[in-house]
Design goal:
0% helix; four-stranded antiparallel beta sheet; seven-stranded mixed beta sheet; 11 strands; globular; mainly beta
């Protein structure tokens, strides 16, 4: 059974930083994509960043480029989303997700496995 466990959400003031953590377990493959998505109240879910498990190639949404960084520590089997220079518009529930595709895309339909979400609130 595949499980994704997120942690690290919380409340910060604008300009502050948070680091989210996602630990996947139970997935049998070695070539997969991990992604962070977010969904704000009343808005559609959107992709934030992706990282390939083998190549570590990353991709970011335009709204977070230069502020957010997705990384992975394969020794710990952990993925991180470092969020700096946060803005009130970053307030949302953040989810990590796993796709078995070899190419990471922003399409949520690619991702079969999802975490429970961790809330992030940024105050002005």
């Amino acid at each position: 059974q595949v499980r994704l466990t997120e942690s690290g959400g919380g409340s910060v003031q604008a300009g502050g930083s948070l680091r989210l953590t996602c630990v996947p377990s139970g997935y049998p493959g070695i070539n997969y994509c991990m992604a962070w998505f977010r969904q704000a109240p009343g808005k559609e879910r959107e992709a934030v960043a992706t990282i390939s498990s083998l190549s570590a190639v990353t991709r970011y949404a335009d709204s977070v480029k230069g502020r957010f960084t997705i990384t992975q520590d394969n020794a710990k089997n952990t993925r991180y989303l470092e969020m700096n220079g946060m803005e009130p518009e970053d307030t949302a529930m953040y989810y990590c997700a796993l796709s078995g595709r070899g190419t990471c895309r922003f399409d949520a339909d690619d991702y079969l496995y999802w975490g429970q979400g961790t809330p992030v609130t940024v105050s002005a």
